[in-house]
Amino acid sequence: MSHVLLIDDDERLAELLGRHFDKYGIGLESATRPSDGLARLARGGIDLVILDVMLPEMDGFEVCRAIRARSDIPVIMLTARGEVMDRVVGLELGADDYLPKPFEVRELVARIQRILKRAAPHGDVWQFGALRIDTQMQSAQFANAPLELTAMEYRLLVLLAGQPGKTFSRDEILAALKGIDTEIQSRAVDILVSRLRHKLNSGDFIKTVRGAGYCFVGRPE
pTM higher than 0.70, yes or no? Predict the structure, then answer.
């Protein structure tokens, strides 16, 4: 069973999600205050966080920043406002997905399942110079140091590195990842690529193909 932590001050939402999640084998814990949520997360045993933007004590963006300072656990952000800029900010802070309220519970469940699955194309170890990707363990290293990647960053890396030299358009990346809010479209892809490049210490592994998209240029060893 997967264990999800909801940080949202709406107690009714926790009750609603709890009833539905049981049907899909997802255990739910909830916290109405960010401090309580961060304390629960620190104790471990949580696979994914659902995080509201509008919270007491601090907003969801600050909470997401605090989570990312200590963990790469998947984060889905919720907002009642549904503003595109809010979603962009959430992605820039390292959120894996963004869902505006109101939403269908089944859609949220589908997004949780996709993110937690993080299915690699096959179990194998790919070596590209200083970059090592273990698709069986779903992990990556650069210069022998573990890369702290979010679920979406890892999926993007596996997608591109799985076919070196192939240029993926932004639409193809969006379709393959299936977790980014498509209303953001190319902006979301650019943010993800930028974040991944930064974690690869630039690395020159991901090339921008002007007017076409992105391709992975590392040579497998």
Answer: no
